[in-house]
């Protein structure tokens, strides 16, 4: 985890990174990248499968010319006479409006009818072709004219019938001849409000129109297109409701059936430069995209809507009122015609049922919305919203929590997309917002990992030679607890120095003394590390160590004093080895002070060290030099002693005013750990003597300091006070006497 010192700059980088990825994703979204679009379509289909089938209202149905019908009635295409019987049967069963998902684009000439017409044509202009004979031939041909029979049946229907026609796009190799003008007058949308002419390619711009033959077309006033639109993956999700051809707007089959079924509701198509702005059927606004396509709300797999076999209707095998007051579409579902389409529910969904789906969606106002205008704001809002939420989480969570939060955020967005589908019926983009979130998370995680590694390397580089391995492990595991910049903290600092090293260096050759010094420094440094101290630096033969930084330690005074005792004990072991090897014996003095000091990386831009500075650091150095004056190994300040007296044995040495400080400080000797066997009676005698000395009762004090030799022979502090008492007794001070010792030397 990155330390707080770095968090601001890291987070700023993350904001920039997430902003860039969000912008790139927004551009990809607007450009509609093909591969991502295909995956998006499949993700949308999952909502229908998760929701499951829904029972339609029953206001629509379809009659299918299925495999059973072909087997019973004959192969497709059927004669128009049989189609007339089927349409008549649908009307007889109570259909409210009949729509044909097919067209009658060519005359239906049978061989017998064609033979009669051929005879008629040959007799014309021939003496044998009297008017009576020609009239009889005309009547015979008319009786065999299935197109006329179909047209007559359509005219006699009680329910209005909507014919189907087909538009060709510009990519079609075959284009039929232009239709008669009456097609434009009759089949265009009744009312079109054009606020601004749509730009090219905004609507389905038809290049050709395949319409019904005139005799059939003249039998009804209604016609609509049965064109079906497929997505890039071949599936059907949209159905076009309007088409533009020769500057006019034509309705689809389903839209025309709706206007015929609800004649009191005007159809209004509003256009603008972007395409279709609105399609309104009376008070109902039908949400489409700019191309005038309706996003289908499927009710289930194929044959979910009420449906009946054509042969069953022809033979009266269905209830008489099975189609009562329903909008009925007649279509072909035989496999040979390839009018079976893949949808969200089914890979073989009847094309005729697509028109039923449109009818049901509009009649029940059961719409799904994917308008480019509004959904663009939804999707881009979700894209940016997830990014902002992620940045907020990233700024306050770390580790497993951010992983769990991102996973929860992704799951929440998936739930949101499904709720939008089930509730308001909005198609929210499934991929771009989560992809952006995933990329943002991965990118920032990689960046944070690299920053953490960089931080760890910096820590490792800075402290690998100065702290114990276990401390290094803790520092690397929790670098956020480190503050490498300058800060004021309460720490303990230790100085140790070899006494008389300058004299030794003059007496012994470097070849002999340097290995001994290296051995000494190695052993002493290890003691510092064993107590989890930080080696600040070597100052010649002196060692400076810090406790409580960079890794916080509440017991840093105890660690410092324990280090000092173990350094003295380690030196005893080294002395025996040196004596055996004939090497000079070294003695050390150690000074320790606890207080507030400045700690951190200090130096120039090119070179710096992690160290401590301040008056309390200087005092520790002065205390180390006092070990020579008082003849002891370890001297600590009063602030240190007050914090460790419960764990160590010690005694007050003096109250001194060292050079560079205005105020006097009490100094103490650390003699050992609790339980080390130092007689308590001896310390009581010593402290009583020190008390008498400060009261000016030097004779009594002298007696007690002499008694100290019974317990601690050659005790240097006692010997020092014996000399002071004798001197004061021999030459009593004039005026007021102060027991504070003033030391002018460093």
Automatic annotation (TrEMBL):
Subcellular location field: Cell envelope
Positions of the Guanylate cyclase domain: 492-624
GO biological process, one term: intracellular signal transduction
Principal location class: other
Pfam families, alphabetized: CHASE2, Guanylate_cyc
Spans traversing the lipid bilayer: 12-31, 375-393, 400-419
Keywords, ordered alphabetically: Cell membrane, Membrane, Transmembrane, Transmembrane helix
MF (Gene Ontology): adenylate cyclase activity
Annotated Gene Ontology cellular component terms: cell envelope
SUPFAM superfamilies: Nucleotide cyclase (SSF55073)
InterPro entries: A/G_cyclase (IPR001054), Adenylyl/Guanylyl_Cyclase_3/4 (IPR050697), CHASE2 (IPR007890), Nucleotide_cyclase (IPR029787)
Protein family per UniProt: Belongs to the adenylyl cyclase class-3 family.
Protein name (Swiss-Prot/TrEMBL): Adenylate/guanylate cyclase
Native source species: Syntrophobacter fumaroxidans (strain DSM 10017 / MPOB)
């Amino acid at each position: 985890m990155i330390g707080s010192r770095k968090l601001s700059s890291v987070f700023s980088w993350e904001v920039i990174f997430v902003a860039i990825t969000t912008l790139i994703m927004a551009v990809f979204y607007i450009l509609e990248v093909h591969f991502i679009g295909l995956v998006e379509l499949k993700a949308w289909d999952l909502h229908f499968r998760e929701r499951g089938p829904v029972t339609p209202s029953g206001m629509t149905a379809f009659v299918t010319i299925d495999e059973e019908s072909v087997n019973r009635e004959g192969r497709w295409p059927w004669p128009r006479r049989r189609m007339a019987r089927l349409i008549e049967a649908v009307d007889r069963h109570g259909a409210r409006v009949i729509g044909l998902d097919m067209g009658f684009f060519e005359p239906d000439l049978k061989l017998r009818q064609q033979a009669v017409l051929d005879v008629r044509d040959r007799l014309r202009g021939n003496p044998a072709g009297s008017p009576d004979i020609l009239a009889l031939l005309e009547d015979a041909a008319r009786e065999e004219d299935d197109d006329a029979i179909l047209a007559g049946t359509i005219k006699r229907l009680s329910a209005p019938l909507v014919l189907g026609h087909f538009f060709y796009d510009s990519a079609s190799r075959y284009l039929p001849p232009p239709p008669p003008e009456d097609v434009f007058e009759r089949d265009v949308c009744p009312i079109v409000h054009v606020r601004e002419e749509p730009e090219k390619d905004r609507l389905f711009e038809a290049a050709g129109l395949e319409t019904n033959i005139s005799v059939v077309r003249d039998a009804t006033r209604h016609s609509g297109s049965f064109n079906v639109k497929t997505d890039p993956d071949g599936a059907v999700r949209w159905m076009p409701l309007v088409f533009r051809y020769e500057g006019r707007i034509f309705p689809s089959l389903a839209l025309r059936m709706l206007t015929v079924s609800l004649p009191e509701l005007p159809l209004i198509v509003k256009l603008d430069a972007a395409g279709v702005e609105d399609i309104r059927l009376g008070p109902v606004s039908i949400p489409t995209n700019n191309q005038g396509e309706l996003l289908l709300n499927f009710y289930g797999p194929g044959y979910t809507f009420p449906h009946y076999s054509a042969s069953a209707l022809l033979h009266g095998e269905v209830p008489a009122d099975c189609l009562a007051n329903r909008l009925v579409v007649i279509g072909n579902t035989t496999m040979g015609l390839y009018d079976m389409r893949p949808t969200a529910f089914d890979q073989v969904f009847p094309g005729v049922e697509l028109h039923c789906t449109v009818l049901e969606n509009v009649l029940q106002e059961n719409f799904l919305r994917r308008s480019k205008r509004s959904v663009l704001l939804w999707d881009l809002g979700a894209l940016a919203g997830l990014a902002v939420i992620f940045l907020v989480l990233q700024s306050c969570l770390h580790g497993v929590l951010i992983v769990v939060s991102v996973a929860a955020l992704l799951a929440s967005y998936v739930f949101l997309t499904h709720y939008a589908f089930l509730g308001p019926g909005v198609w929210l983009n499934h991929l771009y917002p989560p992809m952006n979130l995933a990329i943002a998370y991965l990118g920032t995680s990689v960046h944070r990992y690299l920053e953490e590694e960089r931080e760890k390397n910096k820590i490792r580089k800075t402290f690998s030679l100065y702290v114990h391995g276990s401390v290094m492990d803790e520092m690397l595991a929790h670098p956020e607890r480190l503050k490498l910049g300058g800060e004021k903290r309460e720490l303990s600092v230790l100085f140790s120095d070899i006494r008389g090293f300058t004299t030794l260096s003059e007496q012994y050759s470097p070849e002999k003394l340097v290995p001994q010094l290296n051995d000494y420094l190695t052993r002493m440094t290890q003691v510092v590390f064993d107590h989890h101290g930080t080696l600040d630096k070597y100052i010649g033969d002196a060692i400076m160590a810090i406790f409580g930084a960079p890794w916080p330690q509440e017991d840093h005074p105890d660690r410092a004093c324990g280090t000092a005792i173990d350094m003295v004990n380690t030196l005893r072991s080294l002395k025996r080895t040196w004596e055996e090897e004939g090497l000079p014996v070294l003695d050390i003095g150690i000074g320790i002070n606890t207080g507030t000091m400045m700690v951190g990386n200090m130096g120039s831009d090119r070179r710096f060290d992690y160290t401590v500075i301040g008056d309390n650091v200087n005092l520790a150095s002065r205390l180390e030099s006092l070990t020579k004056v008082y003849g002891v190994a370890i001297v600590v300040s009063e602030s240190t002693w007050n914090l460790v007296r419960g764990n160590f044995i010690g005694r007050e040495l003096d109250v001194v005013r060292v050079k560079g400080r205005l105020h006097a400080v009490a100094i103490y000797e650390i003699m050992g750990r609790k339980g080390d066997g130092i007689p308590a009676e001896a310390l009581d005698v010593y402290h009583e003597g020190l008390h008498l000395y400060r009261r000016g009762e030097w004779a009594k004090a002298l007696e007690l300091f002499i008694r100290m030799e019974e317990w601690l022979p050659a005790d240097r502090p006692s010997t020092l006070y014996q000399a002071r008492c004798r001197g004061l007794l021999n030459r009593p001070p004039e005026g007021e006497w102060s027991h504070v010792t003033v030391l002018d030397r460093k």
